[in-house]
Amino acid sequence: MQHRWGIERLWWRMDARAPVPDALARPATPEGFGDPKRGRDLLAGRHLRAGQQVQSRGRPIWSLGPETDPESAAQHRFGWLDDLAAQGGPAARDLAWDWLKDWITRYGDGRGPGWTFEATAKRLTVWVSNGAWLTQSPSPRSDEAAFLRSLSLQSRWLARHWHKAQAGPGRVMALSALLQAEMALYAAPRQPARRAAALGQAAATAIGQDGAIASRDPEALLDLLCSLNTAAAILGAATTSAQRDAMDAAARLLRALRHADGELARFHGGGRGAEGRLERALLEAEVPVGAPPVGLRMGYARLAAARTTVLLDAARPPSGPLATRAHASTLAFEMTCGRRPLIVSCGSGAHHGPDWRRAGRATPSHSTLCLDGHSSARLGMGLGGAEPLVEGPGEVLAHRADADGMQRIEASHDAWRANFGLTHDRRLGLDRGGLTLVGEDLLTTLGPADERAFDAASHAGRDPGVAFTIRFHLHPDVEAALDAQGAVALLRLRSGEVWRLAHDGGARLSLAPSVYLEKSRSRPVPTQQVVLSGRAMAYATLVRWSLVRSGDAVLAPRDLWRGEGDPA
């Protein structure tokens, strides 16, 4: 270990003596996906840590918590620089220079938590993207020479170590960042043929022929496509066919994973994506627009008609190392009407602290059926405090069968079969006008062994049967109320549309508080959920429900499509 460290320090000394350009040879075009509101908070000294607002009182951003804290380590990726650039102005630029120079002084020699492959790749990408903004006008706090020297050192470090990054996604990000840094510093990538070949191999490893990735996180797939798009623009004719194929497959799949409002479905730790980022990525990938294929894509089933889209998680959660971000969301669905999300999942709480992260991963935070107190998978204990999803469904089956003028999907999972003898079967159907979604949730035993397990579970508590809830989490923009009889939930969108959620009487309907978790929001946003609750008393318990648009609504301009048919 000491021998390796000594060699690394020797490399650092050699890199430090390497020539450095006097200015950026080819500044990159800013991505422009920072959040100006977060930028204003940073200027005011307000920072979010573990879901709580912290006042910096003049301290650098990485001094607000222990270096081992995941949120402190995340600051070394410099995502905050995008937010300050989005806010813009001399004050934001001065603060950015203060923190950037402080980071170079503290950590620029290869020490600290920011020297992982992923963090270095992200940091390089952000520095290159915002380099023109940082250097566009003189500032008493700027030090362009130190910035360029550190950019050069980091790119040389990544050139030596990119092959040690995670096979597939990690190497795609590392190689793309390396190409961007070399382009900015030297106006051309070094060893373009070797870089292109390595990137093509990494892309083929990360992205399957159908566009799927192992994490099943739609936003992570978007991140990969953006990195590959940028790399292809730099490599030009040197871009390999393997990389082009991966870009094509990813873009086609992302079209199938976006809702009617153009935003991504939020599953397995992913968010909706920065506004406009998905659309730009699809345009840059130059994939012809076409109707998404019918069937499961990356484990998701899509129903789409007119202005309505439904996406259902119809596969097992990710396993292995990827299980640390996975959610217990099997058979959960999301629904969007025009430009308005209606049914959602609570989302990833990773940016709001560990408690929200755990809560967001549990089955009750998703729009699906849950046996009370029992998620379809639980959080285990892994290395380094990681919490992988364990004991999830052993088998998930899904079948698309359109009939009677409706698009239909049926899926089932066996997560509760061992302890309760019950299999959950969900059926969804969307009519051709996109005005009605019908659903059936069935809890059933599949044989004598299941019946014995159910009998034992149903008599284990004070009350007979097995309690269950079917949750429909609502987007914060949805106003919910019960009708006079308390049997129907009336869901009003900001567009003026009203949707009626009714059921067949096999459960009790109520409204309950919920939250909406999204990294673009500084805090969890209060919202509501519709809950159907009941008890499974027999070997088969069926609850039928429907979501029907009520009457005609005068639509706002943002709720109208420029074209016809499926917006994807």
How would you describe this protein?
The protein contains 15 helices and 20 strands. A hairpin with a 2-residue loop joins strand 5 (333-337) and strand 6 (340-344). The protein is elongated and about 75 Å long. Strands 3, 4, 5, 6, 7, 14, 18 and 19 form an 8-stranded antiparallel β-sheet that branches. Strands 10-11-12-13-20-17-16-15 form an 8-stranded antiparallel β-sheet, with no helix packed on it. The chain has a two-stranded antiparallel sheet with strand order 1-2. It has 568 residues and is of the alpha+beta class. The longest helix is centred in the first third of the chain and has 19 residues, at 117-135. The chain has helices spanning 2-16, 36-43, 70-74, 79-87, 90-107, 117-135, 144-161, 169-186, 192-206, 218-235, 241-256, 277-285, 354-361, 417-420, 448-458; strands at 46-49, 52-55, 300-305, 308-313, 333-337, 340-344, 369-371, 378-379, 389-390, 396-400, 406-413, 423-431, 436-444, 466-474, 479-482, 489-492, 498-503, 508-516, 525-536, 540-550.
Would you kindly provide a brief summary of this structure?
With 568 residues, the chain is an alpha+beta fold. The protein has helices at 2-16, 36-43, 70-74, 79-87, 90-107, 117-135, 144-161, 169-186, 192-206, 218-235, 241-256, 277-285, 354-361, 417-420, 448-458; strands at residues 46-49, 52-55, 300-305, 308-313, 333-337, 340-344, 369-371, 378-379, 389-390, 396-400, 406-413, 423-431, 436-444, 466-474, 479-482, 489-492, 498-503, 508-516, 525-536, 540-550.
